[in-house]
Amino acid sequence: MLTHATRTELAALVGLACRAPSVHNTQPWLWRVDGSDEQPVVELYADTSRRLPAADPAGRNLLVSCGAALHHLRVGAAAHGWQPVVDRLPDVRRPDLLARVALRRGEVAETAARDLAAIAGRVTDRRRFTSWPVPDTRLEHLAATGSEEGATVVALLDLARRHRTELLFSRARTRQAEDRLLHAEQRAWVDHGARDGVPGALVPVGGGSRFEDAPPVEAGVEAGVESTDGVLMIGTADDAPLDHLRAGEALSALWLRATTDRLSVVPLSQVVEVPETRAALRHEVLDGGLHPQLVVRIGWQEIARSTLPRTPRRDLDDVLLG
Ligand SMILES: Cc1cc2nc3c(=O)[nH]c(=O)nc-3n(C[C@H](O)[C@H](O)[C@H](O)COP(=O)(O)O)c2cc1C
């Protein structure tokens, strides 16, 4: 049995995990805290009622989002003196149980202050980046950080592969623009509610953001892949739920690192959502060796720019079971 004090402590860790990024800010996760004070356990479940039927019928983005939350939980736990031991997809009969995380008392991570600041400060900043190119070494460093999480993160440094990715990205956008159901779904998640969805205030005007036909708020800014942006691709050896979860952990790891380094990260999932462009990415950009899970663009935001408001999150009571 968990005492009230430990339960409260674990709930706070779940709160940190819920700061993770998720597709359209759907926050498709549920949590359960269990075990004893000596051996507490946090379980992560997929909330499949929050899957996006048009953009994400197979639930890939849902699992990538949950993987990001799992990594946030691990980092938050380590920053509070817990050593997390993760069992991913522990029960084949319950595919919605994504991970069981046993916590043991340990040392507070040396990087605790930095990691907690990164969780608190991380945000999807879709505004146009400055034209300062991100040095290749920085991109390789971020790719290496992500690759420690059981996925492979590739920095697209050569122009031919980058160019191909950009073309496929615009082809995916065109395909999705023709899909009325998908369009309606996307619009529905802009200003969706007080606790989820993408606030219209965070959507830039034109130029490439997937939410660009939402009410324009900040004139003159735009997003899309610019020639000076860094581009990383998260790939995996297989294409099963475990791979999607791992891709999300890699996303979180590289994003928290980038936040510490004052770099901005914007995921671009459309090119992976469209089966045709996902297959082309795999064969034409990744030479058939990896399954693409997510493309992210990386850049510097202008220092003088205002800090963005944080996106909302569901109440802990709504995501913490029993
Ligand atoms: C799997 C995944 C896919 C995403 N795809 C996109 C995308 O294609 N375009 C975009 O602008 N943001 C994308 N995002 C960012 C989310 O919209 C963002 O994380 C969410 O709105 C919460 O906001 P926050 O990251 O500022 O906390 C994606 C995030 C995840 C985890």
From TrEMBL:
It comes from the Bacteria. Gene3D superfamilies: NADH Oxidase. Coiled coil: none annotated. This is NAD(P)H nitroreductase. It comes from Nocardioides abyssi.
